[in-house]
Structure formats: C-alpha cells, structure tokens
Amino acid sequence: MGVRGLQGFVASTCPHICTVVNFKELAERHRSNHPGCTPTVVVDAMCCLRYWYTPESWVCGGQWREYFSALRNFVKTFAAVGIKLVFFFDGMVEQDKRDVWVKRRLKNNREIARIFHYIKSHREQPGRNMFFIPSGLAIFTRFALKTLGQETLCSLQEADYEVASYGLQNNCLGILGEDTDYLIYDTCPYFSISELCLDSLDTIMLCRQKLCESLGLSPADLPLLACLLGNDIVPEGVFESFRYKCLSSYTSVKENLDKKANTVLAVAYHIAKVLRLHQGEKKLEEMLPLGPNKALVYKGVASYLLPGQTCPWIFQKPKSITTLHQQVVPMSSDPESKQQIPVCADPESKQEIPVCADPESNQESPMCTDPAPNQEISVCTDLEIKQEDPLNMEPETKQQVTMVSDTEILKVARTRHVQGESYLVYNILTSGEIECSNSLEDALDQALPSQAFVYRPVRQRVYSLLLGGGQGDASSCPTVREWFVYSGNPLRHPDLVRPLPMNIAGGTPSLKRLWLNQEPAMQTLRVDTLLACFDLSSSREELQAVESPFQALCCLLTYLFVQVDTLCLEDLHAFIAQALCLQGKSAMQLAALQGGGRGRGPAPTGRAPGPAGPAKDSTGETRGQEAGSTSLSGGADTHRRPGGPADALRGLDRTLPQLTIFREPGHHTSGQHILVHL
Length: 678
What we know:
Elements (H helix, E strand, L loop, with lengths): L5 H8 L4 E5 H11 L6 E5 H8 L11 H17 L3 E6 L8 H25 L14 H11 L3 E4 L4 H11 L4 E4 L3 H4 L5 E3 L9 E5 L1 H8 L6 H8 L10 H10 L9 H15 L10 H4 L6 H9 L26 E2 L70 E2 L4 H12 L6 H6 L2 E4 L14 H4 L1 H12 L12 E5 L10 E3 L13 H6 L4 H13 L6 H5 L3 H16 L5 H13 L5 H6 L52 H6 L1 H4 L2 E4 L12 E4 L1
Parallel strand pairs: 2-3, 2-5, 3-4, 5-6, 8-9, 10-11
Antiparallel strand pairs: 1-7, 6-7, 11-12, 13-14
Helix pairs in contact: 10-12, 10-14, 11-12, 22-23
C-alpha cells in the first residue's frame, strides 16, 4: 500500500518531516483562521481498524460491545474539542489494482495459515504480533459509526483518492490515516493514526512541504517520484533497473543510510537535476525508459491529480470530481454498440477459470460456469474504451454501461452505496462483479466448507433479485463475477456465478416495489423476500413465533445448519448463548470477566482467557486486508467438555465473555472444535 519504501525513508532519513501536533490546538487555530467553519478531520477508516480493535483475544472476534465502546470513545474525544469526523470506507476495487488486491489476498492466506499452525502447535491464541482483522469488521464498523451519528461514506473509486479530494475541497483540518499516498497527494495535512494518543489528542503530522525540501522537489514532482519508486498502479519491478542506474550515478550516497533510502534520494535527484532540464520540451517517454509501460506510468501520475489540478510532467484535461449525478448508461440503452467485453478477458486461459464445485464432492455444480466458447457476455462496458491516449487519461464525461436498465434504481443504489447503507449491491447492478477478502479459515481442515461456498446460494438468489428485473426468470440473468478467497483458489480469474430462481409466492418482486413502495403491506413482502433468499419461506410461521430481536438470528442459524451438516447441537447452543447471555452486560463487565493470562486464547479446558492488555498501535500494510466476510473458523483436536449440552449452557455465566464448546466424540470425524468468542 502507498509508495514503496517511502515510509521507511521518512523514518530513517527525514525524521524532521514528522512533527508532533495536538488536535485540540489545531482545531482552535483553524476556528481562529476560518470563523464559522467547523474543524473537520477526514478519516481513512480502513487504515484505522487495527487502531480501534484493541481486544487481545482477537482470533474469534466478536467483542462487539467492547469494540463499539472503543468507537464511541474515539468519536466523543474528538467531539469534545469541537472536531467533526467524516469517515471513508473502501467501496470497490478498481480494475487497475486487481492484481495488487490478489497479491495481498494470497499473502493474507499465508498469514492465516501461520495463525492456525500456531494455534494447533501451542494450543493458545497467538499474540498481537500475528494480529489479523476479524472477519466482517469493516462492514460492522460502518454501521456502528452511523449508529453513533457520524457521517460515513463509501467510495465509488479508490478510497484514498476520495479522501484526499474531500479534504482538499472542504478545507479540512487534515486526513487521519496510515498511507504514504497522502504525502503524494497535494491536499490537506496528513496525520498518522498509529501515532495517535487519544487521551491527549497528540499525534504525528507528516509534512509534505518538508519532504519536498529534503528531496529538492516541488509538490508537483511527487506523483512522478511515487511511480518511479513503485505504487499500487505501477509495480515496483517496472523501474528496478532505472533505479539501479540512478543509484549508480548518484554522487551523494550517504554511507549511514541503507540502500532503499539512498535509492529514494537518487531517484529524486534525477528528477530534480536531469529530467527537469527538459521539462516542457520533451515528453516523459523521451526522458524515461517507459517502453510498454508508457500508458501505465501516465495513468499512475494522473491518479494523484485531484479535481482542478495539473501536472507539469503530463498534459491532460483536468479531472472532474465523481458525483452522484455522473452519467450512467444501462446496457439496453445502447443497442448499436457492438463493443462487448466478455467476462473472461483472456480467451486462451478460459480453462483455468474455476468452476464452482461442492467442496465435499468431485462433481461440478451448475451454479458457476465458464461461458460457452463463442458466447459473448456483456457485463460492464466503459464507453471511453478506445485507443488510450496517455496524455489525456481522464475524459470530461464518464459514461458507464450497467447490468440493469432502470436509471431510477441505479440512482437509489448509488446513493445508498455512497452513504454506506448497503454493501456490494451497487457494484452488482453496475459492473456485475464483487469481491470478498480473507476469512479466518483453516485451509488444511476440510470438515467445514469455506464461507464463500456456504453463503453462495443466498448470493445467487440475491443476484436473481437484483438483475432479474422482477421477471422471476433467473436463466435470463447475466452471470456475476465473484472474486472470493477460499482454500485452493489461486484468484487468477473470477468465479462466474449464475443467479438462482427465488421461491416466493406471487413471483419475484421488482426492486422498485421493494425499495420505493412505502405501503404498509410492502413490509410483509420484504420479509417474504428475505426468507426466500435463504430458501426458508416454509419456515415463516415458526420464525414469526420468535421475539423480533432473534428472528434474524434464527433465520441465519437455520440456513447455516441446513448447509453445513458437520455442525452439531453443541455448536447451535454456542451460537444461541451469544444472543441470550450478553443482554444487560456492559462492555466493562464483559472485559472484566476475562481473567488470568494476558493475551492468551481459549484454553482446551474451556477456561476463560486472560484480560485484554492495553491497546497497541500497529503499522504496516493497513489496507492489506479488508474485513468483508463472515467465516467459520477451524481448529484442531477433539476434546470432550464435561457433561452434555445442558451442562455446557449452565456454565455460561462462568465462561463469559468467551465460550468454548467442544465436540463430543462421535459428532465429528475430523477432530475439529468450534471456538465461539463473545
């Protein structure tokens, strides 16, 4: 994430770039300089998840009340000094960065494998040094912040670009995050979340101007520097030989610095003393060995230019900011267009596209198929796709061909997406492509199927609902491309998933009826549609007999136990116990119930873990993992918990907030136990 090597360079070579600042003092100064303007900090929320999630017992996740309490304290602390917070979340993965996304997911797989190896070897949870964000945390955080009354936005493009744009256009106090790209954007000041002391509101400000002075560059040169060093658009290896030549000819090499730091200085020197001599006279490709990467480099430089900004290294039309009124063109509105982009972009590698298979059988499932050899599947077409002119990377008008034809529905979906009120729906309606990051799943344990397979039938019915136009004919719906992480998936291509028909009385309703019709009877239809997505229409009366707070839980558990036949009664008790035993307990009570042994995971005897230690800030690739899924976690070894299910439930008061239910002999042939963390 960010510019390769820049974080280390700043820390080792230019510590003066980092200045200790106090948010309360900054806010007072801002109010003095801008009367009537509320000091606002725009928060890159994906960079902050590690900072917010402080419980030491993190493997099973689930300390919801503790986590919600931490978020509430964070918000209240800034509000107390008159600072408004605006939170941004990733809303999509840009196609230019799909390869980077895949590499990070595969890297996360290796980290997760080490976590499970540690658990099996030491029979305890690893420490914070192996911390991995609990599944689903980003989604839950979004709704938690909205519950706290915070402005929460979801991006329509690269999140850091929207964060930087918002900060610049709204004269914000600064950006709070952990991404060196914010040093490259010419926007408001950048503050480090990892260095934030919430009690005092002190943190580190990384000064863009001081960085430029140290490198002998201007802010307009930084985008080019970022691309030559390597970032998420221009791979680090593209200019490896160029950087080596810069370092070889650099006469001011500092012996007390490592090679990476000297490389940054050498590349900056080349820009300032060599390239700048010909700036405006020669094109960039005449001064640098761009070769086949010409368009990529221009795109990389242009990606840092905010609305209204230009760069002396490239010539292009100014960017226009993405708005909710961006023109959207449905597929059916362009009948004369013959340009169709097949789902698989590499026709010679179609055989490598994974076909969804039942994880417990060797038979291929028809739910996910490769398109026929000569079949054209029109999914998402950008009308700007023509011979790419690297000097004009950003067109003034952006038109997008979508999967559905109803512009009113698209506008509603877009608004809800931006406001963080829905998840993935807009991406399905527009591009027909979604992704789901890593879950804490044991790749070596085949007893439990991946969550990607467990919940796929639900997603397939949702696809039918979203793309069927209320016709009820799933066979006419286009396939959806799924980039889901699961064991054995190399992520070379997306899975092509066919929608499934919904079994609902009166046929599948249209999105207009479900979303826009406010008649009282529509609430019943919405409930029926929800049950149909889980294929539980026949259980409607039984579910209605349950108290309303637990209806959704029972719906999910019923579906889960139908799909996964390796789950047993003790697992059901554990899930239900979470819902029943937390009522009336505060976050402080739950935290206090953890006793004995700091940072330890669930003990094989069923004892409660140790107390959570103080919060630890973490740095590194903060956007390297997104938490956007729900998973079943595997463990190892079979142990019998004394007594039967009733005895296990009687002991809940003693084992909260973490309950470990072990399978009894004979329930599970794989010797796996389920850990349920409250």
